[in-house]
Amino acid sequence: MPSEVKILGLSAERGRWLLILLGMNVLLCSGSVYAWSVFRKPLETELNIGATESLLPYTIALVFYAALMPVSGFLIPRIGPQMVTVIGGIAVGLGYFLSSFATDITTMTLAYGVIAGSGVGTTYGVPMAVVAQWFPDKKGLAVGITIIGFGLSPLISAPIASSLISAYSLRTALRVLGVTFGLLILAIATTLKLPPKDWHPRQASSLSLSTAPTRTYPKHLLTSRSFYGLWICYALGTLIGLSAIGISSPVGEEMINVNPALAASSVSLFAVFNGIARPLFGWLSDRFEPRYVAIASYVLILIACILMATAQSGQVATYLLAFCLFWFCLGGWLAIAPTTTLRFFDPDHYAQNYGIVFTAYGVGALSGNLATGQIRDWLGSYTYVFYLMALLALVGIVTANTLLKRDRSETITLETTQKCGKR
Known about the structure:
mainly alpha
């Protein structure tokens, strides 16, 4: 009986909210990857490398993060969310710890990029899959709140890492963070579980629980025009957002002449906007057509690009506003994409479906970060990066308006399912 289901000693109706909090903490540890810009300058100095090379560990971490998402999605229903989280937690901690011994950029990239990045990809999807199953009545909001942890992570990890680097060294900072993240993720892993198949919240209406399309993964996903629209829009949104995150501190120091301490601390401010965006865009994606929400995010990106393309030295407020918008929109896409996946495709296969959609994130991360580093090294300034971002935002607007909508065949299937549910 649903009433007998317990979560951490509480009834499922109440205990499921604790899973959001616990999931947020797993993502808080994993999301420290977004604080990489704090490590870049010390790494460039210690290893005597340029901007493109210092971006490699971060870029490869994001690629492996995206590559392991589909794997994690297939493993969750087979070995359970707890074991998947344990595997990911060990990889995250080990990757950070081993990177502290790196003496060249190749070793650093293997330890931080490949090992830690794989751990992030393995753990990232688990809290979202667990929460989505426990909240069939509030999917977008619940998932959006859960992934706040990933977005807000730099708010905590960036100043801690910066303080450890200043007080001790880059290597000590990596070791401390690795041990801490690994232990926290392993402790929380024991609490994550999926609901029984016949469980649903008492408050949910029969209609809200009968709106899933009848066709199943993978045919329904890969044969859908809306999948390709979502994939392209997600790739563009993350390409722009992740590129901006990777250059947040260097742009402040080089273009605006912000002192290094302020540039590092500003990452915490940006992280707040990244976190706030997730439940907000999740809520919006629940209530409005995803294409309209996507277009709104691209318009905000265009505004940020214009601000930075015309920014002058000393215009700190312009820099802060623009990068708050960049981080805000990236956080938005990390809520728009999973919520749209839940709306457009079979929610019973959400972990697998979103794992495939999430490959767009890896493509955006790899191409965006390589491009920004090359533009800086070739042209001597980050200013030109924002012209490219503006162009991509325009492409995103067109793509969202033409492709990011439910296929006609999907709408018919959904309507038929709803009618059957009413009988």
